[in-house]
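Researcher: Structure for this, please.
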Amino acid sequence: MSLDATRGGPALALALAAQTAVMLPVFLLGSLSPLIMADMGLDAFGLGLAVALFYAASAAGSAVLAPLADRTDAWRLTRVSLLAVGAMAALIAAVGGHWWVMIASLCVAGAANGLVQPATNVVVARQVAHDRQGLAFGIKQSSIPLATMLGGFAVPVIGVNLGWQWAFAIAALIALVVMALCPRRGIRPVTEAGGRAARLPRTTLLWLALMSGLGAGSANAMAAFLSPSIVASGHSPATAGIVLAVGSAASILVRLASGYGADHNRLPLLPTVAIMFLAGALAYGILASSDALPMIVLGALLAFGMGWGWSALSILAIVRANLGAAGSATGITQAGVFSGAVLGPLGFGWLVSVTAYPVGWMVMAGVTLLAALCAAVSERQVTLHFAQRAPL
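Model: Predicted structure, token format:
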């Protein structure tokens, strides 16, 4: 059984469902980590290594496999990715008590995640109307906070009552159900020549990948360490949880609102991304400078909303500048995102362990300023590229 996903609405819904399903295993690992670590005898380093390997495999999968999204049916690639993730989640549920099974399964799931991201970008680029793609990418990029929330709900509802393995079993079932709903009628691939003709120069894509990696590194470090930072400032874990929940909601709202604005107000995409990075840098400066709860809330809202809300606009900018080659182009930039997701939290954690949280936040502010600079450089290169291609 499959939905008629040849129209924009069903295509977007399935893209969101697929992207959420492939991210569930790693977010379940994080949310269920107290139960998993106690059962498997893992320490914090082992947990961090498993998450880092997932994102490293995602980076490799995105860089190597993304061109297939332009040359092959994107829905077929999505089904293959969902099948791989479903099989790995089922394997974890069955024999995941062994740490090597957990890590190996997460590596395979990570590679599938690296493929499904550009594949679903192609789906949105070709099956959602041009004047609705901003909001569409805003909805699609909300899959990460959505997977985070599902992982959080899995702890009291499933993990505590039934055991953490059942949460992975349900994640496997979700992936397989979404796979069954994906259409069998494919998206016609572009020719290799057509893909090259419509694609930005590799140098520009590498600048965009660097921008994405720097932005993702700081944002993922913030998402991972904001809660312990708040507790270290003298506030309760419950307060930290509320701040995180409000911040996550702000991130979703900004992604949706900015996408809607891009559709209706002709926002300059990369300049807006640069401004959002500047606001994110300000947020980290606020977090570094004050332990007062009102300032922490303000910093968190800016950090989640602006410092982590730019992804929809950046993908929209890359897709619109690479018509016919959305998979290849976003595969390169997603490799930057996943690399940042590995290096950012690891670097922040090491820095805080040898200094203090304020130092870490100030360094993240500097990293985010560099991301803003990369956005400005990328915008300049994109403008020059299309000026040179314009007929005289």
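Researcher: Any notable elements?
Model: The first helix runs from residue 8 to 31. The radius of gyration is 20 Å.
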